[in-house]
Amino acid sequence: MVTKSLKTKVKKILTARVWLICFIVVAILMSSVIYKMSLGRVYPITANKQFVSINTGETYGGLIDKLAEQNKINFPFVLKLYRKLFIQSQLKAGVYEIHQGMTVKQVFDLMSDADNAQMNKIMVIDGTTSKQLIERLRKDPNVVKTVVNLPEAEMMKALAIPYQNLEGLLAPDTYFFMKGETDKKIILHLYHRQMDTLDHEWQNRAKGLPYKNKYEALIMASIVKRETSLDRELTQVSGVFARRLELGMRLQTDPTVIYGMGERYNGKITKQDLRTPTAYNTYTIAGLPPTPIALPDAKSINAVMHPDDSKNVYFVATGNGGHKFSENLTDHNQAVQDYLSVLRSKKDGATP
C-alpha cells in the first residue's frame, strides 16, 4: 500500500517535471522570438537589391552597433555572440549585393568572405596626391594592372592624357568598380570626371582672373585645397593668391615647398627648405609651380574660379582652427604674433 509520504514525493516530482517542461517550452519560444527579431530578421532594404559598402578596418562589433543605432537590427548582443561563436574571420572590406528577403544572419555570413564582394570600393581623398592613388591601385588585388607599373612618361602615353603627369587631374570621390577592372579604365574615369568639372567651372568663371588657361586654374585649386580644410575659407584663400599674382608678389605657400621636397620631407620644413630652390618652391619662384600639387575637389576648383572680392593679400593660421586674413603687412605681422602667442599658451598649458 502506497504511503502518504510516497504520494507526496511523487506529486512533487511530477510538479517539478511539469515546471521544467514549461520552462523549456518558454525558453524555446523566447529563443525563437529573439532569433526571429535578431539573426532571423529580414535585413531592411528599399529595393529588390541594394549594395552595402564595408570599409577597410571596419569590424563586426562596430557594424552591429551602427545597425542597432539605425534600428535595422534588434538584440545586438545576440549578433555579437553569434559572430564570436560561428564567424571566426574578420569583416571583409568590399561592396556586397544584398537581395530583398535576406536575413541578418545571411548578410553577416556573406560579409565574412571577401570573395562575395560584388564591387571594389576605391576612395580618392581630396588633397592627397596622384602618386598616393597610383600606389593604392598597385596594391589593390581587385584591380588588373596594365599601366600603373609603367614609367610615368609611358603611363601618360598609354592613357593618352596630354599632360606632364596625373597630379590634379583625377577627381576625388568614392567610386565603385567591378572586381577585375583595369587600372587604365579606373584612371580614365577619374580623369574625365575631373575634366568635366574643370571645363564647366572654367566656362563659368569670373572675369579678370590671372590664369592663362584652365590648367593654371587647376594648379591654383590644388594649392588652395592644401592650404585650408575649411570650405568657408576657400574663396578667401583663392582671393589672396589671385591678388598676389596680379600684384607680381610671390605666392610663398608652404604646401608647394613640401611637394617640391618629395621624399626629403619628414613632417617639418625649415628656413633652409624655404630658401632651397625647386620647381615648386613658391618662395623662390615667381608665379605658379609647373603642375598641381594635389588632387583638388570641385569646391576648390569653384573657389578659384570665383575668388572673394576683398583686398586681403596675407593670411596666417590662428592656432585655434582657421586663418586670419589681412590687407597689409602690418596687420599680418600682428596676426603672426597672435598666432605665436597662442602656440606658446598651448605649450605652457600642456606643461605639468
From TrEMBL:
Gene3D superfamilies: Classic Zinc Finger, Endolytic murein transglycosylase
CDD domains per record: MltG_like (cd08010)
GO molecular function, one term: lytic endotransglycosylase activity
Residue intervals passing through the bilayer: 14-35
Alphabetized InterPro entries for the sequence: MLTG-like
GO biological process: cell wall organization; peptidoglycan biosynthetic process
Recorded topology in the membrane: Single-pass membrane protein
EC number(s) per entry: 4.2.2.29
Protein keywords: Cell inner membrane, Cell membrane, Cell wall biogenesis/degradation, Lyase, Membrane, Transmembrane, Transmembrane helix
Top enzyme category: lyase
Site residues (Important for catalytic activity), renumbered to this chain: 227
Reaction(s) the record says it catalyses: a peptidoglycan chain = a peptidoglycan chain with N-acetyl-1,6-anhydromuramyl-[peptide] at the reducing end + a peptidoglycan chain with N-acetylglucosamine at the non-reducing end
Subcellular location: Cell inner membrane
GO cellular component, one term: plasma membrane
rRNA processing recorded as keyword: no
Keyword DNA damage (UniProt): no
Protein's job: Functions as a peptidoglycan terminase that cleaves nascent peptidoglycan strands endolytically to terminate their elongation.
Membership in a protein family: Belongs to the transglycosylase MltG family.
HAMAP family (UniProt xref): MltG (MF_02065)
Record's protein name: Endolytic murein transglycosylase
Natural source organism: Acinetobacter boissieri
Gene that this sequence comes from: mltG
